[in-house]
């Protein structure tokens, strides 16, 4: 489980991952990903999170 914010406006679901979708001013991009199908959106967000975490692990390996 990972913290994300799900909002629904005009029959569209929007999801922002709290730690990964920050803008330059520090606010969260709550509209980073969107879909009319919550199940499809959940699958897409899991894929994005997996890639973000893989990148972080890769960066850690390069630094140490």
Characterize the structure shown.
A three-stranded antiparallel β-sheet has the order 1-2-3, with helices on one face. The longest helix is centred in the last third of the chain and has 26 residues, at 38-63. The model has no long low-confidence stretch (mean pLDDT 84). The chain has one helix at residues 38-63, and strands at residues 4-9, 12-17, 33-35. The N and C termini lie far apart (27 Å). By secondary structure, the chain is of the alpha+beta class. The chain has one helix and three strands.
Can you tag this structure with a few keywords?
64 residues; 3 strands
What's this entry about, in short?
With 64 residues, the chain is α+β, with helices and mostly antiparallel strands. The protein has one helix at residues 38-63, and strands at residues 4-9, 12-17, 33-35.
Q: Which structural class best describes the helix and strand composition?
A: alpha+beta
Separate helix tally: 1
Characterize the quaternary organization of these chains: single chain
* Count of DSSP strands: 3
Overall shape: flat
Low-confidence stretches: none
The overall pLDDT, averaged over residues, is: 84
How are the strands ordered across the major sheet?
Answer: 1-2-3
Helix % is 40-55%
Task: Give the strand content.
Answer: 15-25%
> Main β-sheet: number of strands, strand sense, barrel status?
3 strands, antiparallel
| Rg value | 13 Å
N- to C-terminal distance: 27 Å
């Amino acid at each position: 489980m990972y913290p994300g914010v799900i909002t629904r406006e005009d029959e569209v679901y929007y999801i922002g991952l709290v730690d990964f979708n920050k803008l330059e001013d520090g606010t969260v991009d709550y509209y980073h990903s969107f879909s009319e199908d919550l199940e499809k959106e959940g699958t897409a967000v899991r894929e994005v999170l997996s890639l973000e975490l893989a990148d972080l692990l890769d960066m850690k390996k390069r630094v140490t």
